[in-house]
Structure prediction request, 182 residues.
Amino acid sequence: MKQIYHRFLFKNQVSELINLDKKIISETRKWIVLIIRNYEPKDLEEIIRLFKKTIFEINIADYDLAQVEAWSKVDKLSFNDNLLATKSRLVVNQDEIVGFGNIDDRGYIDLFYISADYQRQGVGQQLLKDLEKSSQALMFSVNSSITAKAFFEKMGYQELKQNLVYLRGQEFINYTLLKKAK
Prediction:
């Protein structure tokens, strides 16, 4: 499989107020180059750590402990097979994987996770755009968590329906969202 890399700049902006005679706002800008690349089986352990960490740090806001514990259980072989059978992309900062997602030939986005430290900074937007561009599908779909629903809506996805799903003895609400390809 041909390895494709995309680079983009990520801006972390910190503002501080300095009191002298006047109030002066100074900004410190830090630019980091992030790379989007294809998944490789050697990435599996780090991706699983990111997957679990994100669920426990971010999704816990919308789901209870029993739900996130059930959600975070992983069958490594099935997880790897899923990533290999789809277009699976990673966002990497130096040697650290900070996000990942995948899309199948029908335009279904199955996995989409961004590290808590990189959320709300454009990383997810870049990854989603990359996944959509890699697909020939006429329509994109995702079964989104409560937590990620607003993100997908911001990216042009529209809610089709609310779902009640069961996983490892736990009941979850998620949403099916659709977006027409451009």
Summary: Residues 38-180 form a domain with the Aminopeptidase fold (CATH 3.40.630.30). Residues 10-29 have pLDDT under 50 and may be disordered.
